[in-house]
Amino acid sequence: MSDVSEEKLSFQAEVSRLLDIVANSLYSNKEIFLRELISNASDACDRLRYAALTEPELLGGDADFKIHLASDSKAGTLTVRDNGIGMNRDDLIENLGTIARSGTAAFMSQLENKGDANLIGQFGVGFYAAFMVADQVKVTSRRAGEEQAWNWVSDGKGNFTVAPAAEDEADLARGTRIVMTMKKDAAEFLDTARLRKIVKAYSDHVAIPVILSEGDKEDILNTASAIWLRPKSDITEEQYTEFYRHVAHAFDEPWLHLHFKVEGVIEYSGLLFVPKSKPFDLFHPERRHGVKLYVKRVFITDDCADLVPPYLRFLQGVIDTEDLALNISREMLQNNPVLTKIRRAVTKRVLGELTKKADKAPEEYATFWGDFGPVLKEGLYEDADQRETLIELARFASTEAEGLTSLAEYVARMPEGQSEIFYITGDDAEAVRRSPHLEGFKAKGVEVLLLSDPVDEFWIPAVATYQDKAIKSATRGDLDLSGVAAKDAEPGEETESEPEAPTPGAEALIAFLKLALKDAVKDVRPSARLTDSPVCLIAEEGDMDMNLERLLKQHRQIDMESKRVLEINPKHGLIRGLAERLGGDNPSGGDDNAALEDAAWLLLDQARILQGEAVPDPTAFARRLTAIVQRGFHI
What we know:
Shape: elongated
CATH topology of the largest domain: Heat Shock Protein 90
Distance between the termini: 89 Å
Number of helices: 19
Helix content: 25-40%
CATH superfamily of the largest domain: Histidine kinase-like ATPase, C-terminal domain
Largest sheet: 9 strands, mixed
Radius of gyration: 33 Å
Strand order of the largest sheet: 1-6-5-4-7-3-2-8-9
Low-confidence stretches: 115-122, 586-590
CATH class of the largest domain: Alpha Beta
Strand content: 15-25%
């Protein structure tokens, strides 16, 4: 018996906020609290079963895992008990006093700001669901292999206590007992008929027997078999949904499920789900994979990075194989040839199902792509074996398509004379849609893909071409659209037109700009891509793309600044005016040259702003702008 006294501790801030949402506004369907507690109990049994493979003494001679329910109407309590791995003092504080999930603080802030309780479906509340129905929750737990049992008690209002369990309370050989003192409006959950119905509806798939104790009588309430090993014909959509919620600890619904059994050289079964909504921590670097590995129905791990590729990390479910040793360590799983073969086959199967969805339900698929497309695109540079399949699955916003478009659809719309696929990258699709770089493309009716995911900068060099057509940035290199048929041209109509008369003084202005801007730009030249704007910046072929450079600077990966080419639109009124001013009489002498030099730097700063870059010298920019305005208004 420990001499440690009772400790009163405070919940982590995120837990307190979550408990307030759970207790006061989260669910009208409060019965799901039992599903969550049974799910946790099942996980605890699975973890002990795995640990006992190498430490059989942890079982203490009891390998018969069970989950018990018992209600006491007189005392107003409901008890959920398991003989799983259990918890000690530190486990209770860590697991019940904090939320050790990546990105939790950001998610809770989002939840509070939006005020949308449905967002919780992306998170799950697990144990804390008990406070939807209970005024007080008391947890007594003994970790397998340890002598001391511990009590954890809370009313869910900011604090909890942890203390060694007294001898008359510590009757657990191992595992966890949760006793809930029910709220008055939750008395219905003390009725055994109600409990039977809830377990059948939500937890029938749980592979551990759920037993209801009524006096001396005990009844098993669930099928207690591995759902992934049962025939598809025996499983309803509701059962699939509840298993998804169990395995993912989620509250939303799956968009797609894949249930399969493979026999041959390697035998394995799987039940995988694609969520309907994007998990809140999908891009968090500490996010764990959601596919659990079982061997001969024994849980091995829920953190096997080699089971599915990182770009399918949104998958939830189970893979169960007959071809690994039960006592295999997590270290031995790395680069295991059996897992490698399973991973390849599962990846191909999942992408095949997504291809079917894209063909048969394009609107549904577009919604899926909006949530998970940025993750799938990671596979374009990570997985050369599946690159051809992934590029066909990819969808993009573009200047011509109303919704999303595939590359195959883009190529089918290409006008006569176009030989390349053009794209532009930026932080936001609607912002890049307004980029001056697109003016010449719009005039010719040439479609440009609008790419706004950071990953776009990395997969394009890996893919490079599609159907023998180079994928080229609209902001890079010289642009020649002279061979493309005009937007309204008839098929076969000549594309060449009479060359436009050169703008008087344009060459002199370009020479002046080169001299004035000196080393601030790589070159100055007339533009074939501008029709309405006076200037823009472009990257030379072989130089780093401007959006990529900005992304790398934001993440402090580089501190360099590449020189860019300044393109001017000789047809624009501002450029014409500057050219005329430069070539005309100059009564003001040095003052006029100073004004033209100010204009040169303002043109460069304007091009930077249009590109989304910061002006490097705001003070000089403000001074030049003030001087130009004063001259213009004769102030």
